[in-house]
């Protein structure tokens, strides 16, 4: 949920009476903002989703309560008793999209596609808003990839991140009172009369706590979202089952839908979001220039969330490469260090604060990445960059992408054909999006599967790259992440990664010094100081890099590398060892590489 930067607030007199407030709430002030509501012909405030899909909201209290957790059997049982609602929803979806695709087809026939492009993009956005949160969530994921979506559609779909028609403030304030059990004027001394942002699941108000005077964001859940999402997921799940039976995909699409649906249902429980936010703040709030807002758990329920107010601009709207690098580093920590990651990183959830920090928002959709999968992901990156495609095929089995019965020799041959040219350009030029695109035919041929966890991880990385591409077309998220992976492999003492490093550096007993040099060089780029972001990515073979490698090797963190170098030095004949330490670096480089010679000489002289 994006908290938009607010102008200076102007407050009404304390005796001002607002039609938006409950009747007993007359003693506190509200800030003035332009209205965002649409108004029906009867003069009643109503949002588009409620107007077009409000029939979905009519569930009993017990039925609503049963939707607190995602359970496809319970959802199916509810709508088995409501066949007319199901049929009406199918008819609405079919006719709505059918009309839009029909118009696009006519545009093509009349050769007006380009002329009508922007109009159809705006119509698509309005359709998604009418159909509700499930479709908006899908569009949000797509809208973060400017390299895949035409600009007109991208502009329209990006509005779905935080500029959806809000629902009535009167309904929102009544929900706050009902959920928190106190009159609004007892909770807040000031509150905005209109939401400052509205998204698919809820909308945000700016308020001042009555108790402390702290400025906070109050997020209120949109009425009817659980019922609408539950039915739409039931429909999507059915379609996924039909596709699975038709054997058009190797992946268990129903499991993918279930994983996404589970995370979506968790996102609708604001108490869980508050707990996620506190955990995220504890794990990553200490990273330099990362800001994670404080959660007010005592003022949070399943449908109302109170958190620290954050102001800034969307990261996608400011060209700040440094903060993108901070985001990459933070994502590395989320995915590969702690395994607790933000699974909904669309542009509306990243802000650049006015003091230059990267603020994370919206902690409803989080993911857990198990240790064995983290290690498997690291190994896959290492093997990809070092063109060890035979090992990469085995990594895909470990990650659950390939069945154990797959013909690994044939897979290796296919992966070599796909990735050889891409990797030859260097790790800094490997596009995450291109890798996924090139894999398509191979995934189908060898019955690749998409594990349920993997879709969220891929989305997290792809969205981050998409944000960066919007202002730097040459940005590669893998190229920015790999230095941190190299640093972790060279410093982590876990048996699994130590074994991975040994396997990488030795082949049939022969020490591959070139790979160690490559890892050391890449790890030297694992820095996020603002002044160095632009220069360090361009430095691959300079005195600065050599100095960083030497300094790293001599630190406590570099103990693993020192042990490897000492072992290799010990294998040389005594005379060669002595010559190596005495010879100038250029001559010593004939025995080992220059970088290694410099390192060894510094260690002993």
Give a written overview of the molecule.
With 605 residues, this protein is of the alpha+beta class. The protein is built from 27 helices and 14 strands. Among the domains are: 114 residues, no CATH class; 153 residues, Transferase(Phosphotransferase) domain 1 (Transferase(Phosphotransferase), domain 1). Strands 1, 2, 3, 4, 5 and 7 form a six-stranded mixed sheet that branches. A four-stranded mixed sheet has the order 6-11-10-8, with helices on one face. A two-stranded antiparallel sheet has the order 9-12. It is 54% helix and 8% strand. Helix 5 runs parallel beside helix 7. This is ABC1 atypical kinase-like domain-containing protein. Belongs to the protein kinase superfamily. ADCK protein kinase family.
Summary tags:
8% strand; alpha+beta; 605 residues; disordered N terminus; Transferase(Phosphotransferase), domain 1; six-stranded mixed sheet; 54% helix; four-stranded mixed sheet
Compile the SSE list and pairings.
Blueprint: E1 29-30, H1 48-53, H2 61-66, H3 72-80, H4 83-109, H5 117-131, H6 133-142, H7 151-158, H8 169-180, H9 184-187, E2 188-191, E3 197-198, E4 202-209, E5 215-221, H10 225-245, H11 253-267, H12 270-284, E6 290-291, E7 304-308, E8 312-314, H13 321-338, E9 340-342, E10 350-353, E11 358-360, E12 366-368, H14 371-385, H15 389-398, H16 408-424, H17 432-445, H18 452-469, H19 477-491, H20 495-505, E13 506-507, E14 510-511, H21 513-523, H22 533-536, H23 543-553, H24 559-571, H25 574-582, H26 585-588, H27 594-604
Parallel strand pairs: 1-2, 6-11
Antiparallel strand pairs: 2-4, 3-4, 4-5, 5-7, 8-10, 9-12, 10-11, 13-14
């Amino acid at each position: 949920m994006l908290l938009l930067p607010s102008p200076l607030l102007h407050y009404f007199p304390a005796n001002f009476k607002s039609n938006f407030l409950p009747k007993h709430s007359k003693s506190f002030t509200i800030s003035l903002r332009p209205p965002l509501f649409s108004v029906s012909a009867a003069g009643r405030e109503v949002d588009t989703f409620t107007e077009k899909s409000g029939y979905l909201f009519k569930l009993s209290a017990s039925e609503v309560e049963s939707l607190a957790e995602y359970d496809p059997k319970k959802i199916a049982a509810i709508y088995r008793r409501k066949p007319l609602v199901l049929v009406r929803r199918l008819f609405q979806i079919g006719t709505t999209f059918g009309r839009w695709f029909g118009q696009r087809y006519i545009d093509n026939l009349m050769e007006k596609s380009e002329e009508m492009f922007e109009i159809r993009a705006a119509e698509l956005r309005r359709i998604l808003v009418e159909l509700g949160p499930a479709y908006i969530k899908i569009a949000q994921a797509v809208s973060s990839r400017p390299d895949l979506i035409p600009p007109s559609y991208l502009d329209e779909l990006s509005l779905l991140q935080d500029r959806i028609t809000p629902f009535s403030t009167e309904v929102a304030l009544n929900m706050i009172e009902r959920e928190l059990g106190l009159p609004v004027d007892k909770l807040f001394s000031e509150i905005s009369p209109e939401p400052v942002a509205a998204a698919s699941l809820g909308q945000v108000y700016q308020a001042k706590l009555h108790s402390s005077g702290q400025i906070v964001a109050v997020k209120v859940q949109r009425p009817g979202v659980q019922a609408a999402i539950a039915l739409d997921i039931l429909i999507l799940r059915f379609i996924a089952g039909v596709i699975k039976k038709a054997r058009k995909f190797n992946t268990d699409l129903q499991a993918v839908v279930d994983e996404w649906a589970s995370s979506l249902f968790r996102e609708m429980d604001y108490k869980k979001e508050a707990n996620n936010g506190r955990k995220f703040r504890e794990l990553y709030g200490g990273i330099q220039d990362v800001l994670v807002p404080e959660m007010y758990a005592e003022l949070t329920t399943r449908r109302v969330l109170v958190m620290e107010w954050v102001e800034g601009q969307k990261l996608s709207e400011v060209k700040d490469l440094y903060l993108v690098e901070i985001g990459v580093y933070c994502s590395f920590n989320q995915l590969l260090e702690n395994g607790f990651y933000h699974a909904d990183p669309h542009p509306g959830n990243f802000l650049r604060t006015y003091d230059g920090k990267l603020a994370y928002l919206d902690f409803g959709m989080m993911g857990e990445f198990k240790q064995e999968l983290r290690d498997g992901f690291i190994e896959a990156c290492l093997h990809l960059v070092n063109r060890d495609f035979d090992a990469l095929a085995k990594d895909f089995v470990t990650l659950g992408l390939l069945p154990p019965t797959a013909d690994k020799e044939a897979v290796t041959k296919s992966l070599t054909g796909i990735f050889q040219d891409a990797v030859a350009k260097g790790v800094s030029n490997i596009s995450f999006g291109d890798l996924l695109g090139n894999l398509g035919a191979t995934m189908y041929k060898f019955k690749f599967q998409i594990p349920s966890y993997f879709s969220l991880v891929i989305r997290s990385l792809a969205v981050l790259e998409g944000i960066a591409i919007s202002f730097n077309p040459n940005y590669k998220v893998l190229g920015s992440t790999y230095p941190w992976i190299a640093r972790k492999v060279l410093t982590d003492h876990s048996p699994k990664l130590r074994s991975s490093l040994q396997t990488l550096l030795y082949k049939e007993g022969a020490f591959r010094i070139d790979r160690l040099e490559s890892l050391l060089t890449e790890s030297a780029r694992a820095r996020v100081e603002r002044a160095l972001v632009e220069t360090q990515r361009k430095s691959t073979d300079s005195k600065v890099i050599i100095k960083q490698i030497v300094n790293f090797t001599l630190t406590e963190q570099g103990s693993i590398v020192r042990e490897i170098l000492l072992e290799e030095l010990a294998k040389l004949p005594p005379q060669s060892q002595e010559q190596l330490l005495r010879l100038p670096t250029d001559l010593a480089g004939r025995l080992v590489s220059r970088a290694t010679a410099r390192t060894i000489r510094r260690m002993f002289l």
